[in-house]
Design brief:
With 465 residues, this protein is of the alpha+beta class. Helices cover 23% and strands 24% of the residues. It has 11 helices and 18 strands. A 7-stranded mixed sheet has the order 6-9-10-14-13-12-11. The radius of gyration is 23 Å and the shape is globular.
Length: 465
């Protein structure tokens, strides 16, 4: 598994078809007002991105190109779409349900919602924001050019919404939700897409806030000197403080998933590792007989809080994928559908109340067309100096750039190593399927031939077709 803030950098595998209005689904928790005012504002249509010879222009800003630039026109065309802010889109519905739950369940001392919501932050971030601010080591594989969309060596399209975590804490926020689009080069199938959406939450506690309801709490402390790191806590934290923060985190998230999935939900916690939390956990829920991973969470690393000017507090954080939840709760089986403009898809989510049950009725399933492509991989000695060696993500991204949403899946079906030369060959099966009409082999072949030519000219592969 790859890294994401409290989620693997890879999107999780597609979950079984689960729909809350189907007989086997759990009952809903139908409360929480959906009419509260948005804290975000609509910035209007975004400027058209442009990839020039010397620069990349995105969201009205120009960024110089260099040897790390690998963002493509098809990916940049998604920037600014903000599906999570499009009213009555399924991702918007999930986001609004989570917001409504936190707004109604957590009220500040003045009667206002305790958690603020931030869902319009720019997806263009610095390497420092995306990795360094989260304590991700310089050698960590999640930084690889092959796994991210770089504008240049210093800037990229965020790989997780947590790229903004430190700046929000630094601004003085103690409790917030953050939602946005994130970008990753990844495999191609019905549950993976190079752009998807995350939502995360952070809450910080002062000494008084954490221990105010504990008997003799004035004698307890968040931090200690001379401690040591154990599986249960960080070296600077007291065990009492960590256990209270962990309890609050798990209670908060259990209430959230019960609100989303329904009452009588069975939950379990699995210990895991993230560079920016310790201890860290993944939450799994038992749904229709299967254990499903729904989010990651943990106690925030104190070093992160120190760097944000909140070293006198302890905090927790969690992160989840909106597509993953929507696919489960609404029974959507192909992640490409979230980008569909088909009215038959969109109209199913125009509900008066965000808590209203939706059971997605699939569009007509048009037949797939399969075309194979086989090629010798480029010799590593032939690669340009300083470039990474060929990776599967290079080929996946090339296929996406040319085939776009016509491509449903790319599967590695065969690998071969020549016994004398040592050269490696791979064969991929590309499945083409339009979501709104039947494709012809003739039009698919034109796309496939473009992919074949590009594999040779752009990746240095040698075709075997």
């Amino acid at each position: 598994m790859r890294l994401c803030l409290l989620l693997p950098l890879r999107q999780s595998q597609l979950l079984p078809r689960l729909c809350r209005c189907c007989p086997a689904a759990l009952s809903s928790n139908g409360s929480a007002a959906s009419s509260r005012r948005h804290l975000s504002t609509d910035p209007g249509p975004a400027p058209q991105p442009v990839i020039g010879q010397d620069s990349v222009e995105v969201l009205g800003q120009s960024h110089p190109r260099d040897d790390f630039t690998n963002v493509t026109p098809k990916i940049l065309a998604k920037v600014g779409r903000n599906l999570h802010n499009q009213p009555h889109h399924p991702l918007w519905l999930i986001k609004e349900r989570i917001k409504a739950h936190f707004y109604s369940s957590y009220i500040g001392p003045r009667g206002n919602p305790l958690f603020s919501v931030h869902d319009n932050l720019s997806p263009v971030v610095s390497v420092e924001q995306n990795f360094d601010s989260l304590l991700i080591p310089p050698t960590h594989p999640s930084r690889k050019r092959g796994d991210n969309y770089y504008l240049n060596r210093k800037m990229l399209l965020r790989a997780h919404t947590s790229a903004h975590q430190r700046e929000l804490v630094k601004s003085g926020l103690d409790a917030f939700l953050l939602a946005g689009d994130v970008y990753r080069r990844d495999e191609i199938d019905v549950s993976h897409y190079p752009v998807f959406h995350q939502m995360e939450g952070v809450r910080l506690f002062s000494n008084h806030q954490l221990f105010s309801k504990v008997q003799n709490g004035e004698d307890l402390s968040l931090l200690e000197r001379g401690g040591r790191r154990t599986p249960q806590k960080q070296e600077t934290h007291t065990l009492e403080a960590v256990k209270l923060v962990e309890f609050d985190l798990k209670q908060t998230l259990t209430r959230l998933v019960t609100h989303l999935f329904g009452e009588d939900l069975e939950v379990r916690w699995v210990d895991c590792y993230f560079p920016f939390t310790h201890p860290s956990f993944e939450m799994e829920v038992r749904f229709q007989g299967d254990w499903l991973e729904v989010l990651g969470c943990g106690v925030m690393e104190q070093e992160l809080l120190n760097s944000a000017g909140a070293g006198n507090k302890l905090g927790w954080a969690f992160g989840l994928g909106l597509e993953r939840l929507a696919m489960v709760l609404y029974g959507i089986q192909d992640i490409r559908l979230f980008w569909s403009q088909d009215e038959r898809f969109l109209k199913q989510f125009r509900v008066q109340d965000v808590q209203q049950h939706v059971c997605f009725q699939p569009l007509s399933k048009y037949p797939p067309l399969h075309n194979d492509i086989s090629f010798w991989l480029p010799d590593s000695r032939e690669r340009e100096a300083g470039r990474e060696s060929f990776s599967e993500n290079d080929f996946y991204d090339l296929v996406r750039s040319i085939g776009g949403d016509l491509v449903e899946r790319v599967t590695l079906v065969d690998e071969f190593t020549h016994p004398k030369s040592g050269r490696r060959s791979q064969c991929y099966r590309i499945t083409y399927r339009h979501m709104e009409r039947t494709l012809t082999q003739q039009e698919v072949r034109l796309v496939h031939e473009q992919i074949e030519r590009a594999a040779e000219t752009e990746l240095g592969a040698q075709g075997r077709y």
